[in-house]
Amino acid sequence: MTAIGFSFDFFSPVDPLNVWVFATFGDVSPPSVFPVPAVSVTVKTNGDGASGDWKGSGISFKGEPDLSSYVVNLNNPVIGLTGTFTLKSRGPGHYNCGPLGPGQDEQSLPNIGWVNVIPGADATVDVKVFGKPLKFSGHGYHDKNWGDVPFVSALKSRYWGHATVGDYDLVFFDMIDPSGTNKVGGYALKAGKVVASTCTTGVKIRPIGTPYPPTIFTAVPTALTLNMTLDDGSHLDAVLTQTSTQINIGIYVRWIGTIEATVGGVTQTGSALWEQFAVSPT
């Protein structure tokens, strides 16, 4: 699925006021991927949370001051985009190398900030996309990137994703910066408690059947392996397998799929979303 004008598209104009909608249905229809234009944006803080209104698009969100929940409202009946979805947090969020709070380094790469306020959530979705109902309860997630340089200039390649399997909510990345240095990170909740948090070691992500690191010339993988060391020294070993491609613009691909993970000899299955950046020719 392509998306002309998406944020990481090298070849088309990008409107920073657009709200991008990605909707994957449970039938055989392809994902719906499209921008909704706005005329202005207002974001206000409220305690540790925030609210935002993309005026003219009919799309807004509201976060609680304690980051316990977020609600996204869709109110654009002209294009058949209506309804709400709600995220109720399962555990504490984090920065790249530490918990939420003052004094933490907010950078995941030089000039690029990142915060993960909801690593795992109970999600409730009740919306219509082009008038087609999409309603379910499942797993949710919320983070935010920002920076003062183009994101794709800050790296050569990156795998990033999040997953829910059994009692675990996982966040993970494995990337190569412009100097060729490998940077990794991992975060895990078990029943809402932090059981892993690292930004230096203990995480390895590799594509199955394609080279690592990926380049603009390598094939796109359909599965990944994830190995993560938890804080107690135990190991989580997993395979992520795609079931749907949400977007593919060459240098950037995002999938949803399944995860099969083993910890302490116990194997469980769950759901996952992950992405690949491959912006370098070598």
3D architecture notes:
Strands 3, 4, 5, 6, 7, 8, 9, 10 and 11 form a 9-stranded antiparallel sheet that branches. A 9-stranded antiparallel sheet has the order 15-14-13-12-20-19-18-17-16, with no helix packed on it. The model has no long low-confidence stretch (mean pLDDT 95). Strand 5 and strand 6 (69-76) form a beta hairpin. The protein contains no helices and 20 strands. It is mainly β and 282 residues long. It has one domain (19-278): AttH-like domain (AttH-like fold). The protein is globular, with a radius of gyration of 18 Å. Helix content is 0%, strand content 60%.
Defining key terms:
282 residues, mainly beta, AttH-like fold, nine-stranded antiparallel beta sheet, 60% strand, globular
Summarize the structure.
The chain is an all-beta fold and 282 residues long. The protein is built from no helices and 20 strands. 0% of the residues lie in helices and 60% in strands.
